[in-house]
Hints:
8-stranded mixed beta sheet
Amino acid sequence: xxxxxxxxxxxxxxxxxxxxxxxxxxxxxxxxxxxxxxLTALPIQNTKGVTNxxxxxxxxxxxxxxxxxxDFRISAxxxxxxxxxxxTALVAEFLRTADFGPLVVDPVMIAKSxxxxxxxxxxxxxxxxxxxxxxxxxxxxxxxEVLTGRTITTKEEMIKAGREIQQMGAKNVVVKxxxxxxxxxxxxxxxxxxxxxxxxxxxxxxxxxxxGTGCTFSACITAELAKGYSVFEAVTxxxxxxxxAIEDGLSVGNGNGPTNHWA
Length: 263
Ligand code: PLP
């Protein structure tokens, strides 16, 4: 079916099925988009967390990218776990000419279990090589703090950080308040390309089933962009989708249950 909308995730593995590439592919499917994937690294993880991360050979990552480009018509692409500066640079170099449609960058840094998914030495490569290519970037508050070097405790500071991240080259920026800022609501800040700020409201949900929330959110944005929706439509759909998915989070495993299932 050549008319089927196709998207790509460039991401790390979660054999537990809750986050990373697995969450992205399940979300694409839920949003009626055909999902393809390129693996960047092999974390060993389940709902309790990440216990180790194995490297892949750089050649293996590059050959996967070439293989996808050789066969599919990708309408939108997202990056998740990129792990090292070398992988980030390789992916950015490839995306510069790949013609994969809008790029959503989820600047994944640390798993809830505390394991690094991006080495400190790779942050500069994300800022300098990947963000200038990004149509949308979706940091949570701690990630926005690392990208900007700012402390963020208020909505004004979320906006300021968003503007600085925009100056790094990303066209649209979502700073996710999520569970990181105080309050009964979870508010995300969407800074549009034209400088306009939109607030996305959500009810704070008391649950431990939040594994893969960020991956699922950015995958939903990617799927909606692939279908041709505007960034505002894609982000508001993703906010509603992730809200419903968290409310309905599954208790599988003993740790944090996943949010990536039907919503
Ligand atoms: N594992 C991988 C491969 C990921 O890309 C991500 C995304 O942020 C996570 C784990 C995060 O898991 P958690 O939502 O539990 O922090």
